[in-house]
Write a structure and sequence with these properties.
Blueprint (H helix, E strand, L loop, with lengths): L6 H4 L1 H7 L13 E3 L3 E3 L7 H17 L2 E5 L5 H15 L3 H4 L12 E3 L14 E6 L11 H26 L7 H5 L6 E7 L9 E6 L5 E6 L5 E5 L2 E5 L6 E5 L1 H6 L9 E4 L6 E8 L6 E2 L11 E2 H15 L11
Parallel strand pairs: 1-10, 2-3
Antiparallel strand pairs: 3-11, 4-5, 5-6, 6-13, 7-12, 8-11, 8-13, 9-10, 9-12, 14-15
Helix pairs in contact: 4-6
The chain binds 2-oxoglutaric acid (AKG) and fe (ii) ion.
Length: 330
């Protein structure tokens, strides 16, 4: 039974109408490949000077890039490999099974593919994802190895994300227990992505350009590559580093930091030959948390996570795209 989502059937009209378009999203050639700023977290334990330097370097990367990579992050390789193996196993199941309404006992929208509201290739992602809100994890069969691996990973990722968020807060004078008070392991989510080979890599994206709706994201990616970020108006490719996790600032940290840290638009380009896997851990507050700039005058109105999400849902319905933080500018 076929594992691939029926991209061709579902998006036939869009694919046909775009085949002759002159303006195609150009996604493959000629991108500069850059190493992201590399933060060695072992420096936090060397001594007060090295620690301060490491924290400042992280803050600088969040200001200038909105992205950095971390090594010596204390998430064991063995666990990352196991997560990837479980991820492969789950995506290799037949499409009919993955799209069942109670697949893995998770909520209906956990398994996603393409973009149900796509109106053109510009907003159609050639990928499938399992987006697991960690408060739902207890619904999964407890003897399922996928569940236990996700639980193990989520615990480590939550600990790491909280530490990173707290270090980044030190540069801004945000109170030390802000994240402990507003985030919990069950308020975050894990999105496992699979990018099948795409027959039209120059016409569409693996994931369309977007910013993340969270404080920060920790991404574990394989060595295929394809993640790109917008830097000084140009798309640049992130060179995969087998020892590193990628961290990017999300919309909520941009709002909280009053625009000091940047939630940068990123995307994944499609690949004709090779499938790609990644797992993104979204560090989020509880729905009720109100996010307010840490300095004045504020660039943004204060908003709760719930309001932000509802606005995104409205915008996606109306336009096919998330509008994001600019909706909340003062
Ligand atoms: O696959 C990647 O490298 C990034 C995925 C991503 O941006 C996301 O899931 O929000
Ligand atoms: Fe993302």
């Amino acid at each position: 039974m076929a594992i691939e989502p029926p991209f061709f059937e579902k998006y036939k009209a869009i694919l046909q109408s775009s085949a002759n378009e002159k303006e195609k999203p150009s996604t493959v050639e000629g991108f500069e490949e850059l190493e992201l700023p590399l933060i060695d977290l072992s420096h936090l334990n060397l001594g007060p000077l090295e620690r301060q330097e490491c924290i400042e370097k992280m803050g600088q990367a969040a200001i200038e890039w909105g992205f950095f990579q971390i090594v010596n992050h204390a998430v064991p390789d063995e666990l990352l490999n196991r997560l990837k193996q479980e991820q492969i196993k789950v995506f290799q199941q037949p499409f009919d099974k993955k799209s069942e309404y109670n697949f893995l006992n998770l909520s209906v929208q956990s398994y996603r593919w393409g973009n149900p509201l796509a109106t053109s290739l510009r907003n159609l992602s050639w990928s499938e994802a399992l987006h697991i809100s960690l408060k739902d994890i207890s619904k999964m069969d407890e003897y399922n190895k996928l569940r236990s691996t996700i639980e193990e990973y989520a615990e480590k990722a939550n600990f790491l994300a909280q530490r990173l968020a707290e270090y980044l807060a030190q540069n801004l004078g945000i109170k030390a227990n802000y994240f402990q008070e507003n985030c919990s392991p069950s308020s975050s989510s894990l999105r496992m992505n699979r990018y099948p080979p795409c027959p039209y890599p120059s016409m569409m994206f693996g994931i369309i350009p977007h910013t993340d709706t969270d404080f920060l994201t920790i991404v574990s990616q394989d060595q295929v590559g394809g993640l790109q970020l917008k830097r000084n108006g140009r798309w640049v490719s992130v060179k995969p580093n087998p020892k590193a996790l990628v961290v990017n600032i999300g919309d909520f940290y941009q709002a909280l930091s009053n625009g000091v840290y940047k939630s940068i638009t990123h995307r994944v380009i499609a690949n004709q030959e090779t499938e790609r896997y990644s797992a993104a851990y979204f560090y989020c507050p509880t729905y009720e948390t109100v996010i307010e700039s840490c300095s004045k005058p504020s660039l943004y109105k204060k908003f709760s996570f719930k309001e932000y999400r509802e606005q995104i849902q409205k915008d996606v319905k109306a336009t096919g795209d998330k509008v994001g933080l600019s909706r909340f500018l003062l």
